[in-house]
Amino acid sequence: MADESDDRPAQEGPTATPPEAIPGRIAAQVDDAVKVYGRGETSVRALDGVSVSFPAGRFTAIMGPSGSGKSTLLHCTAGLDTLTSGRVMIGDTDLSSLDDRGLTALRRDRIGFVFQTFNLVPTLTALENIVLPMDLAGRRPDKAWLDSVIDTLAIRDRLKHKPNELSGGQQQRVAVGRALASRPQIIFGDEPTGNLDSRVSAEVLGLLRDAVSRLDQTVVIVTHDPVAASYADRVLFLADGKIVDDVSGPTPESIIDHMKRLGS
Predict the structure, then answer these.
(1) Which domains does the chain have, with CATH numbers?
(2) Taking Cα atoms as reference points, which of 164, 160, 89, 91 lies closest to residue 130?
């Protein structure tokens, strides 16, 4: 889909100074996480004793070779998949203590998602898509917060448009807005710029960076792109289901060096 109506300037990399982690606040934590798919000789150990915390108010990128466990770590932390053993905490809530209904409510009310595909409802306007999770929960959005999200995303003039009337970049801005609108405890992105060209990718990554720096959100993404990961405050590198490095203040060059050492 053409992106000619996206008129914001392309960004070369992070433009905001990464904030310090907010003392005492952990948005999510994983303890001794093991995830095994299959049984017997055909089983695959996707996560092998991973322990990591995600401080509030920080942007974390997760990288690693294909099959390293990065997407499994994201999905298990976000409550989209369950661990074989170990523990995942969102704030002070242990996900293993929740039944299906509780997990659904937690994902709806406390977690935001941005996926590679935009996942917008084609019959709804941009604004209706943004507030849809809250509508489903029977909650009214905080108008002041919603206005700040809309202005940060620069989509106020597109709110009455339906997805097929928006460019790819605008659709992903709406998807980011939907993730932010309920002011979740943490936002997860699974290759959120995978379907976008480099210019629009920079815009969306800049929006996620702004969500952390200006709106005090917590963002965790999986990406294969060193430039995308360089927008983060921190990059976790996985290999064979284990965290093998944890780098603060990443640059595209330092990320590429790490990936080469991992054989990606």
Answers:
(1) 26-262 (3.40.50.300)
(2) 160
